Amino acid sequence: MATLWTRGIQVCRSFSRLCTTPTVQRGTAVRLMSTENDNLQVDVDSKTGVATMKMCRPPVNSLNLEYLTSISIALEKLENEKCRGLILTSGVPKIFCAGLDILEMYQPDVERLQVFWRSLQDVWLRLYGSKMATIAAINGHSPAGGCLLALCCDYRIMAPNYTIGLNETQLGIVAPFWFKDTICGVVGEREAEHALTLGIMYSTEEALDIKAIDKVVPQEEVYTAAQEKMKQYLKIPEVARQLSKDMMRRENVEKLRLRREDDVANFKNFAVRDSVQKSLGMYLEMLKKKSQQKK
Amino acid sequence: MATLWTRGIQVCRSFSRLCTTPTVQRGTAVRLMSTENDNLQVDVDSKTGVATMKMCRPPVNSLNLEYLTSISIALEKLENEKCRGLILTSGVPKIFCAGLDILEMYQPDVERLQVFWRSLQDVWLRLYGSKMATIAAINGHSPAGGCLLALCCDYRIMAPNYTIGLNETQLGIVAPFWFKDTICGVVGEREAEHALTLGIMYSTEEALDIKAIDKVVPQEEVYTAAQEKMKQYLKIPEVARQLSKDMMRRENVEKLRLRREDDVANFKNFAVRDSVQKSLGMYLEMLKKKSQQKK
Amino acid sequence: MATLWTRGIQVCRSFSRLCTTPTVQRGTAVRLMSTENDNLQVDVDSKTGVATMKMCRPPVNSLNLEYLTSISIALEKLENEKCRGLILTSGVPKIFCAGLDILEMYQPDVERLQVFWRSLQDVWLRLYGSKMATIAAINGHSPAGGCLLALCCDYRIMAPNYTIGLNETQLGIVAPFWFKDTICGVVGEREAEHALTLGIMYSTEEALDIKAIDKVVPQEEVYTAAQEKMKQYLKIPEVARQLSKDMMRRENVEKLRLRREDDVANFKNFAVRDSVQKSLGMYLEMLKKKSQQKK
Predict the structure, then answer these.
(1) In this predicted model, what pLDDT tens digit does every residue of B240-281 receive, in sequence order?
(2) In chain B, which residue's Cα lies nearest the Cα of C184?
């Protein structure tokens, strides 16, 4: 995975001209929401009202400002179009999503850094607070922000032999309170503390054991298993399901809404610390070395 | 179970003249608190101070206004009599309690609808907030409000081959926040969200697996197992046990106390929605058809 | 264990001249912080920055005012010295820590009673809120306050064939809200309620099953397993680990800080109740009898 990350870093700036006005179309059986670089494929099955959002930003679906903005806009459109369900998955081999693009945080432009963080907040508010039934079809590794995307969903199905976890502390950074609220809501306080303080990357099997994920199926069945589970959600009267989900999550959503700018300021002040920049620098250096050793 | 529900609907108005002044008597070894229709049998063992409340309202112990009122009054009396423990069980074959009487919510008289909801709040406040040690001897199916009664208890023992769950969303309605708080306190946030959004009915074995219940014993041993567990509670100095329970539950109890009328208004406004009435109507229709097919 | 407790009571006043100015020294490979009676051995490995605090107050490491004060001061010093980790263990055979010295609560001097309670609050605030990575190496029985010390740590490793639990209700007393918050954070609300209301003492195996502890290893490997786990914590960049832990625990810490004097008053008023004094008296009497029977 180190190699993949490194390659991610090498190329991640090259996708900066992402389409920022993705469109979601419905009406025929299946239509495609295509983006300029096809790095976020959104298909809506107009018969079921279920969207599939496939992250296709090689090498590791890392989340930079432009990509987060694309995801956020796509989520907003799906919500506006009254889609009933969303399956989130990856089109990149062996990677679900590697999380935040570290180059957004390393030696950053402070203005962009804050816009970047707000775009991440937006994605969380839209995905965690979605009215849609959301299922993560985790078909690859899923560290940090990738894990967060999965934890935001209503249900998580994962293929074997991958890893998942909020490993921020391993990089010397800290998951914000809304990451913490999200993981606490899935695995409970004890496991969340253990996971966050140690930045643990769990194997698929370990993740199932602590209930960070709900189901394990073979790689080739992850997407169909997600579709199967989605049928169960679709059978439930829409308003009742939405209100029940909202009842569970509203408090956490409101908390971030109320503290957004404080959270941006906290992140900015933390990220620009010498010690954090040093940590990130060392991490990038390590990845580069590992990558070179491999060549 | 569908058949049972239907039969419940067919007969449920016939018990409306329930005794509203049940009396709990103590002094001899075992005395009976009898109600006019014997549909709520309350026995108190005067040696141990343990009451048994047996729901005997065929066919499915459905909770209409009068029955909720009877339960509430009985709970109040037991509390006033300083009973130390309560075993809640059913005298109806294969049904613990089928939950709220849907006819209270379908095409309702709006005044009665609000009184009905307050009576449910009363039962919850008294059972969930009881000073008594409370054990549910779940000897039959336990959907919706029946599941809630069980979750309010301190301990749950269930017979195999039944089902239990807060399946409100399946009927197009939504469990109120205090149902949610109750189930969160038992199975945690993650399982509660899954259970509530999908309205899952768990088998006995599945319920044990997610810790919605504490123990499974054969049907014929459910009540004696409850008595056995009760002995463990009775060994604990009374005040210390009560204060410890109160410490765990006070916050949730206070929350409902503070928001009772808002909660009544929310329920009323939701229940009279066209979409909800339509859902309930379709559900009733489905039950009737299933019942007729069976005849 | 009853015998041990009794012996604890017989001797517990004899350690009252505890050193109140323990010193922590670093610089060489391993230095000892010795107290007057050597009943609290604190060693700091200057290479790793990991301290080991060994409770050596025979017969049962019971927590009286002086001992709590020693622990509190030692924790403060370790924190000030920027120790990175703490392993908490026992030097007394078969006992991790038997909890609060009951003689502090039985027929108490009311002034001292309140100072005693504040010293317990201090230990909790320092241990639960510690910036250090803390691991309990539970090499003996751990009832009541002993269990609390273990639950305050970041990780718990326990030897087989011992017992652990917040058994306060069995003695007729009640764990305060911050004990409750601590155990809820480890085992969740449901298990916490069951544990607290019944004052359950769990076997090592049961404790693992409800996740009150994290790992079971043979008696002779408990300490080395703690050292091994500590290495995992030490690999995490310090500030990120500390901030993540603080994020999980700050709310509970703040709650006690805000309510300290209320909590002292509550405890005092409860402890001096006739019924509580009677319970404690009966408990002490029972221990004495058991002890005499054994002789």
Answers:
(1) 999 999 999 999 999 999 999 999 999 999 999 999 999 999
(2) B248
- Out of A66, A104, A168, A191, the active site residue is A168
Rounded Cα distance, B66 and B116, in Å: 8
How many whole angstroms separate alpha carbon C6 and alpha carbon C284?
Answer: 8
Residue of C nearest to A199 (CA): C236
Verify whether the Cβ–Cβ distance B155 to C180 is below 8 Å: no
CB within 8 Å: B240 and C172: yes
Distance, in Å, from the CA atom of C97 to the CA atom of C54, rounded to the nearest integer, reads 10
Q: In degrees rounded to 5, what are phi and psi of residue A237? A: -50, 130
Summarize the confidence of residues C170-179 as an average pLDDT.
96
C198–B236 CB contact, under 8 Å: yes
Put simply, the answer to whether B236 touches C279 (Cβ < 8 Å) is no
Vertex B130: Cα angle to B128 and B135 (nearest 5): 75
Secondary structure E strands in chain B: 30-33, 40-45, 50-55, 85-90, 133-138, 142-143, 155-158, 163-165, 202-203, 215-216
Angstrom distance (rounded) from CA A8 to CA A94? 13
Tell which residue, B267, B272, B241, B271, has the closest CA to residue B256: B267
Compute the C-alpha angle A54/A56/A58, nearest 5°. 155
- What is the 3-state composition of chain B as percent helix, strand, coil, each rounded to the nearest 5? 55, 15, 30
ipTM for the assembly: 0.89
Note whether B103 and B151 are within 8 A (CB): no
Is B167 in the active site?
A: yes
Contacts A237 to B, Cβ<8 Å: 169-172, 275, 279
B185 → chain A, closest CA residue = A188
Q: Which helix (H) or strand (E) holds C41?
A: strand C40-45
CB contact under 8 A, B154 and C279: no
User: Most A CBs within 10 Å: which of B171, B173, B174, as the mutation test of the A interface?
Assistant: B174
Distance CA B100, CA C50 (A): 59
- HSE of B2 in the Cβ direction (CA atoms, 13 Å)? 14
> Three-state SS for A16?
coil
Q: Is C168 a catalytic residue?
A: yes
- Express each pLDDT in B28-52 by its tens digit: 434 445 444 589 999 999 999 999 9
- Tell me the shortest Cα–Cα distance from B242 to chain C, in angstroms: 8
In 3D space, the residue among C214, C238, C220, C9 whose CA is nearest the CA of residue C106 turns out to be C9
For the whole model, what pTM was predicted? 0.90
Distances B107 to A107, B12, B278, C158 between C-alpha atoms, Å: 64, 15, 10, 60
Q: How close B281 comes to chain A (CA, Å)?
A: 13
